[in-house]
Design brief:
The complex is a heterodimer of chains A (263) and B (511).
Chain A (H helix, E strand, L loop, with lengths): L4 E5 H9 L2 E6 L3 E6 L2 E6 L8 E4 L15 E5 L2 E4 L2 E4 L5 E2 L12 H17 L12 H15 L3 H5 L11 H15 L7 H11 L2 H11 L5 H13 L5 H5 L5 H14 L1
Parallel strand pairs in A: 1-9, 4-5
Antiparallel strand pairs in A: 1-5, 2-3, 2-6, 3-4, 6-7, 7-8
Helix pairs in contact in A: 2-10, 5-7, 5-10, 6-7
Chain B lengths: L1 E6 L6 H14 L4 E6 L2 H9 L15 E6 L7 H13 L13 H8 L3 E4 L3 H13 L3 E4 L6 H13 L4 E2 L5 E4 L2 E4 L6 E8 L2 H13 L4 E6 L12 H12 L5 E6 L4 H11 L6 E5 L11 E4 L2 H11 L12 H11 L8 E6 L2 H11 L7 E2 L19 E4 L3 H4 L13 H9 L3 E9 L10 H16 L5 E7 L8 H10 L2 E3 L3 H11 L5
Parallel strand pairs in B: 4-5, 5-6, 9-10, 9-11, 11-12, 12-13, 14-16, 14-17, 15-16, 17-18, 18-19
Antiparallel strand pairs in B: 1-3, 2-3, 7-8
Helix pairs in contact in B: 1-3, 5-6, 7-10, 12-17, 14-15
Classes of the chains: A alpha+beta (263), B alpha/beta (511).
């Protein structure tokens, strides 16, 4: 039995049918497709979102021996990538809309945000609020991030864009969180649009896609759950799922988010 | 030498990069190694620490930059780094370790009756339900599963007469097969149910060492005995072992259960005909129940179970005169400021057991596993006074492997403790067996040596006490592990509880 798509954006599905996509990168639990300049993440363990294709099973993509550059086809309700076949039926088509709800602060929300900050400090070893100062690499990154968070602007944002290890560099995670925070309280700083343009050449494709989606308010569902948890239910439980992302990504996003809310 | 290379269009996630950097540096004897994506900001960062080479100019944001510094020339270093990075990616797809892409496929191909589930918590319940639908028992290694999901899963399993071991269950031995973290132990007549991974390992290895054997060792997950979950799987496990003809003695292991769960357990135990050893660390209950043998340590639980099987053991807690002499030699070398015990543990329950043993011998003892407010470490990253730190705590493992898988994450803390003037004793545990690091002792020896030298340079002496939780049948070899610790001037204990007793003895006259 082939794996099956649980959710795919209808525009993305249409584009996959009519335009050629190819594999951009292969990981244990996700595969990335490049489609018309957009990066699409396919996997079971990804949140629902505009550029995410969620499938019904955990798949070890390495086991399929798929190479970067391989052509992806979508014919007769089936996505084919070399030997991998994924079935798609009409029920999986979604229309993702930007998340436009904004929230206002009250005393209770401020308390919740303070609790969130304490949670990051106590549960993550490498975060902007506390990190091992004797590590020169972390020191370098967090000093720059600290400058951005306390004086957000285009130069300080560009100085952390693409900074850090891994697929989504820590600097980008902080910026993602910052934009998310700004959007949540209905603010928008004028330089952010320019920053997103710069991201196309200053960071890698996956990170660029994430930044662009965040800026355009196409959030994956864990982001929406976190925002509603904090502002509607006044609890931080949903934010713990974000904290678990990557080695430093989760803490970076949440730190940026707090500063973005308050900026 | 300082060299660099660019891997075009190469992506590795940050968890892989962070977890392999330490090992690659050690394997290739590098002073420094960086592996960052080729963004302008990362180039600046590499320049700032003096590792930048002109070849990195060509790197683009989707490329991976490698830069090293080493006191010696390393041939073919780029390929050696790639080999180690990709070995993390590539998995065995050959022969008997066949890989299936779905639970359905595995069930159909091999008629499996247990599914081990290890996916991020938010997806784990969904996978567990699928396994239960297929009439498979579930071992749920994943954590971050909600209490509601845990209750739902366990109720569904009970209806189908199945087990849900977990969530956050690290150890089980079912029909002689170890699952996740488990040691190679003989089969026999003692059955165990535990809400504790390393607790289960500790009791089974001691039973094995003295000729006892295991029927089943069932893990239930750390939250099973909470008020909300109500001990659903602990009670189910007791029923299963009670009905199992091969099981003659039952051992139950946990930290203190909620009082309501305790009452349910006691009610069930009163109906048992088989002898039950009850090891509830730090719990106090004076009620005497026929055929139930309470113990306060994991060592005590194993000894009692063996006794009930007619196997006598030597005293595993008392310190022999020879050992006392060795302790004395260390104690005499402490400087007046050296008064503190620093426990750096990989095993959570082993930390809790050490805490319960050391409590009467120390003042101001704190730990990140402590339940009592006054014993809770305010910040596990900061060492002060007597501390017992479980390095498997989320704060240390975020984005990194658990220290039982990668014990090198303990090394930096070990050196910090060595620099601390108050440190007299460093207490370490090493877990062997399935799932654990290939050589947890081997990767720690250099750190121990460096710590000893560091203290010596400052006119201090450090006493190391080590305990190896394992069996000779484990791939890593118990004797090989213990011998190398002894060669490094580490006092090697027979059990985790004895290790704590030795630590207490070491500071007896100085504290």
């Amino acid at each position: 039995m082939n794996p099956r798509v649980v959710a795919i954006d209808s525009d993305i599905a249409l584009n996959l049918k009519v335009k050629s996509a190819h594999v951009q990168g292969v990981y244990t639990s996700t595969i990335h497709l490049l489609l018309d300049g957009q990066l699409i993440t396919v996997g079971h363990k990804v949140g629902h979102g505009k550029h995410h294709v969620v499938i019904d099973q955990v798949i070890d993509f390495y086991a399929y021996d798929i190479n970067a550059g391989s052509i992806v086809s979508f014919i007769d309700h089936r996505i084919k990538i070399e030997k991998l076949e994924i079935d798609v039926d009409e029920s999986s088509l979604r229309v993702y809309q930007p998340y436009t709800t904004t929230y206002r602060f009250d005393q209770q929300t401020l308390k919740t945000i303070q609790t969130l900050k304490e949670m990051i400090q106590s549960r993550h070893h490498h975060n902007v609020f506390s990190y091992p100062k004797n590590d020169p690499w972390l020191n370098y990154q967090f000093e720059k991030i600290d400058i951005f968070l306390h004086a957000p602007g285009l130069p300080s944002a560009l100085s952390i864009m693409g900074l850090g290890m891994g697929l989504t560099p820590l600097g980008d995670d902080v910026i993602t969180g910052f934009i998310l925070g700004q959007n949540t309280v209905g603010k928008s700083l004028p330089w952010i649009e320019k920053l997103i343009e710069e991201a196309k050449r200053k960071t890698n494709l996956l990170s660029y896609q994430n930044l662009q989606d965040t800026y355009n308010r196409y959030y994956p569902d864990p982001f929406i759950a976190m925002i509603e948890g904090l502002f509607v239910e006044h609890n931080i439980e949903k934010a713990t799922a974000i904290l678990k992302l990557g080695a430093t990504s989760g803490a970076g996003i949440l730190s940026g988010f707090i500063y973005g809310l308050l900026a | 030498m300082k060299e660099a290379a660019v891997l075009k269009n190469s992506y590795y996630d940050s968890v892989t990069l962070m977890s392999t950097t330490v090992q690659i540096k050690k394997d290739l004897n590098l002073d420094d190694l960086v592996m960052f994506m080729g963004t302008a900001m990362n180039k600046e960062m590499i320049q700032s620490v003096g590792l930048y080479q002109p070849i990195l100019d060509s790197a683009q944001p989707n490329d991976l930059m490698l830069a090293i510094s080493s006191s010696e020339t390393i041939d073919d270093w780029v390929n050696k780094v790639i080999e180690r990075l990709t070995s993390k990616k590539k998995k065995d797809t050959s022969g008997e370790n066949r890989r299936y892409h779905t639970l359905h496929q595995a069930k159909e191909a091999m008629d499996a009756n247990i599914a081990v589930i290890s996916v991020p918590g938010i997806y784990a319940a969904h996978e567990a339900y699928k396994a239960l639908d297929l009439n498979m028992h579930v071992m749920l290694f994943s954590d971050n599963v909600s209490v509601e999901d845990e209750i739902g899963l366990k109720d569904y399993a009970l209806k189908k007469d199945l087990l849900v071991m977990g969530p956050d269950c690290g150890t089980a031995i079912i029909n002689g097969k170890g699952l996740c973290f488990a040691n190679q132990v003989k089969r026999g007549s003692i059955g165990l149910v535990a809400a504790s991974g390393t607790g289960l390992q500790e009791v089974t290895v001691i039973i094995n060492r003295f000729g006892g054997g295991i029927t089943q060792a069932i893990g239930v997950g750390g939250r099973d005995l909470s008020e909300a979950v109500g001990g659903r799987m602990m009670l189910k496990g007791i029923d299963a072992l009670d009905q199992d003809e091969s099981t003659q003695v039952i051992v139950l292991i946990s930290k203190p259960p909620h009082q309501t769960v305790m009452e349910k357990m006691k009610a069930r135990l009163k109906t048992m005909t088989k002898p039950v050893v009850l090891c509830l660390l730090d719990a106090h209950d004076d009620e005497v129940i026929k055929n139930v043998y309470p113990t306060s340590t994991l060592t005590g639980a194993a000894v009692e179970a063996l006794r009930l099987m007619g196997i006598q053991t030597p005293d595993l807690l008392t310190i022999s005169p020879e050992l006392n002499q060795e302790i004395d030699l260390h104690r005499k070398q402490f400087s007046p400021d050296q008064k503190a015990i620093k426990g750096l543990f990989c095993g959570g329950t082993l930390t809790a057991e050490a805490l319960s043993i050391l409590r009467p011998y120390t003042q101001g003892l704190t730990s990140n596993v402590a339940k009592k407010k006054e014993e809770k470490m305010s910040n596990p990253l900061i060492s002060k006074g007597h501390n017992l730190v479980d390095l498997g705590d989320d704060i240390f493992t975020q984005g990194k492997p658990h220290p039982m898988i990668e014990p090198t994450i303990r090394l930096s803390r070990l050196l910090e403790e060595a620099k601390n003037k108050e440190t007299a004793v460093i207490l370490l545990d090493f877990e062997l067996g399935l799932g654990s690091h290939d050589d947890p002792v081997g990767v720690t020896l250099d750190g121990i040596k460096e710590a000893q030298q560091l203290a010596k340079k400052q006119g201090r002496h450090l006493a190391f006490v080590g305990y190896v939780c394992g069996t000779e049948q484990d791939e890593q070899g118990l004797k090989y592990a213990e011998d190398r610790l002894r060669d490094s001037n580490v006092i090697v204990a027979k059990t985790n509880a004895q290790a704590a007793m030795i630590a207490a003895e070491l500071i007896k006259e100085v504290a």
